[in-house]
Design a protein that fits this description.
This protein has 52 residues and is mainly α. The chain is rod-shaped and about 70 Å long.
């Protein structure tokens, strides 16, 4: 009976793990972008401060 339940199948588990990996990679890319943008913002703020 458990085998007929798609939520207990190995395929469903594999799909879930694959999706989790993709999400982790996307989050890592987003975190890297945020770090890059924060650095750029700091540089812009320094440039603005030097104009005052």
């Amino acid at each position: 009976m458990l085998e007929s339940n798609p939520f207990n199948s190995e395929k469903a588990i594999a799909i879930g793990e694959s999706n989790a990996e993709k999400t982790k990679k996307e989050l890592n890319n987003i975190e890297n972008d945020i770090t890059k943008y924060k650095t750029e913002l700091e540089e812009i703020n320094k440039a603005i401060a030097s104009l005052k």
